[in-house]
TrEMBL record:
Keyword Cytoplasm recorded: yes
Lineage: Bacteria, Pseudomonadati, Pseudomonadota, Gammaproteobacteria, Thiotrichales
Cofactor(s) this protein cannot do without: Mg(2+)
Protein known as: ATP-dependent dethiobiotin synthetase BioD
Organism, scientific name: Thiothrix lacustris
Compartment(s) of residence: Cytoplasm
Length: 224
C-alpha cells in the first residue's frame, strides 16, 4: 500500500528524497508540471539545508527570455546563475530534443547528456535533474529519458497531472521505472486545473502503488 502525505516537507521525509544524493524528475507527459513542482522541491530542499545542483541536460523550445526557460527557473530556485553547465544543449524548436537538434544539424548522444551531470558531489549537495517530456519520450538520438535515468541511477520522482485518466498513466510509468530497475521514490499529482468534482486519484492510487503520494495544489507555492 502507498501512503498519502499531506505536505511537501513530509513527502521529502517519507520518500527519503531529503537524504538522497539527488533525483531524476520525470513525468507522465510533457507539460504536466515537472518544472513547476521541481522549483518547489528545490526551495524546500534548500530550506532543509541542501545545496541544489540543477540540471536540465537538454531543453527544446528554448525561449529568448531565459528566465522563463526550465533551466532558468530551476537555476533561480537553486539560487545559482544560469550558466551553460546547467543546460548546455538548447534548441529553439519546440519538438522532442533529437528532432529539435536535427533542425540545426546536430546529433544528441546519451553519453553527452549524462556528461552534463557531475560524477561526484558533496554530501550536502543535491543533484536535481529534469528530463524532457515523459519517461519514454526520446531524449537523444540514441535513447529515451528512461535511458538517461538508468545511466544516472538516481531515485526517480514521477510527476503527473491530476486529471481524469492519470491513474493509467501513473501506473504505466511506475511499471516502466520498475522494469528499468530504478527506484520510484514517490509520485506527485500536480493540480494544474481546478479539480473535477468527485475525482480522487490520490486515494485511488493508494492500493496500487507502494510509495508516498502527494497532491500538489493548483497555483501553490509552498516555499516562495
Ligand atoms: N500547480 C500548478 N498551478 C498552476 N499552474 C501550473 C501548475 N503546474 C504547472 N503549471 C503551469 O503549467 C505549465 C506546464 O508546467 P511545467 O512547465 O512545469 O511542465 P513540465 O512537465 O516541466 O513541461 P516540459 O515537458 O516542457 O518540461 C506551465 O505554464 C506552468 O506554469
Ligand atoms: Mg519542464
Amino acid at each position: 500500500m502507498g501512503m498519502i502525505v499531506p505536505s511537501l516537507a513530509q513527502w521529502l521525509e517519507a520518500t527519503g528524497v531529503f537524504d538522497a544524493p539527488g533525483i531524476f524528475v520525470t513525468g507522465t507527459d510533457t507539460g504536466v508540471g515537472k518544472t513547476h513542482v521541481g522549483v518547489q522541491l528545490i526551495h524546500a530542499l534548500r530550506v532543509l539545508g541542501r545545496e541544489v545542483i540543477p540540471r536540465k541536460p537538454v531543453e527544446s523550445g528554448w525561449l529568448n527570455d531565459e528566465a522563463l526557460t526550465d533551466a532558468g527557473q530551476l537555476a533561480q530556485a537553486a539560487g545559482v546563475p544560469l550558466d551553460k553547465a546547467i543546460c548546455p544543449y538548447r534548441f529553439q524548436a519546440a519538438l522532442a530534443p533529437p528532432r529539435a537538434a536535427s533542425r540545426v544539424k546536430q546529433t544528441l548522444l546519451l553519453r553527452d547528456l549524462a556528461a552534463t551531470c557531475p560524477l561526484h558531489w558533496d554530501k550536502q549537495q543535491f543533484l536535481h535533474v529534469e528530463g524532457a517530456g515523459g519517461f519514454y519520450s526520446p531524449l537523444a538520438n540514441d535513447g529515451l529519458n528512461a535511458d538517461l535515468a538508468q545511466i544516472l541511477g538516481l531515485p526517480v520522482v514521477l510527476v503527473a497531472e491530476d486529471r481524469v485518466g492519470c491513474i493509467n498513466q501513473v501506473l504505466l510509468v511506475a511499471e516502466a521505472i520498475k522494469q528499468r530497475h530504478l527506484q520510484l521514490a514517490g509520485v506527485i499529482l500536480n493540480v494544474r486545473q481546478p479539480p473535477v468534482e468527485g475525482m480522487d486519484n490520490l486515494t485511488d492510487l493508494l492500493g496500487y502503488l507502494n510509495v508516498p503520494l502527494l497532491r500538489f495544489p493548483f497555483n501553490s507555492s509552498h516555499f516562495r
